[in-house]
Amino acid sequence: MVAPDPNRDPIEQYLLAAERARLAGVDTAPMSVGTADPSGRPSVRILLLRGLDARGFVFYTNYESRKARDLTTNPRAALCQHWPTLEEQIRVEGRVERVSAEESDAYFAGRPRESQIGAWASEQSRPLEAREMLEARIRDVESRFDGGAVSRPPFWGGFRIVPDTIEFWYGRTGRLHDRLLYTRTAGGWATSRLFP
């Protein structure tokens, strides 16, 4: 069982955890992301982690979706990744910022063409009267790009969760789990252990 290292940078610690998961055949992309609207009403959904560096955790979406509207009016979020077979969980909380247009362009260019077309066709989170309406919109977008490169929609791009806290949770027998909390301070990261 892996022991948490309070002296390690939390992003480095996360990357080591993700590598353990990858070697064990665990998909490390899915994560639960929680947002709240201006009234404080929470919402959570599964998203895919699409980037990570010293600045934070990145995912992509339609900027007119419910989560994007939440993040625009209340730019804070929380994410959680749980890998039950490894008995590891990572929780992140922090402020949210949009990634640069260049980063969004680069990511979008690498997506499958069907996903690129879908980004243009979907009014994400809006009511859809009938599936046929979406299929007609897809045909219209395919016709517009007519086999050429599909540009990124101006209403689609990335968000980065810039962590204030990162907690690593390691399952132990008797529910006496190891929990290591990193908290961002003016001088870097402070660490503390939490009761299970």
Summarize it.
The chain is an alpha+beta fold.
The mean pLDDT is: 94
Please give the alpha-carbon distance between the first and last residues. 16 Å
CATH class of the domain at 10-105 and 155-193: Mainly Beta
Which assembly state applies to the chains in this document? Answer: single chain
CATH fold group of the domain at 10-105 and 155-193: Pnp Oxidase, Chain A
Low-confidence runs:
none
What kind of sheet is the major sheet? 9 strands, antiparallel
The sequence of SSEs as H and E is: HEEEEHEEHHHEEE
The geometry reads as: elongated
Category by helix and strand content: alpha+beta
- What is the radius of gyration computed over CA atoms, rounded to a whole number of angstroms? 19 Å
Instruction: Supply the number of helical segments.
Output: 5
What is the CATH architecture term of the domain at 10-105 and 155-193? Answer: Roll
Beta-strand content? 35-45%
Helicity range:
25-40%
Number of beta-strand segments: 9
**CATH homologous superfamily descriptor of the domain at 10-105 and 155-193:** Electron Transport, Fmn-binding Protein, Chain A
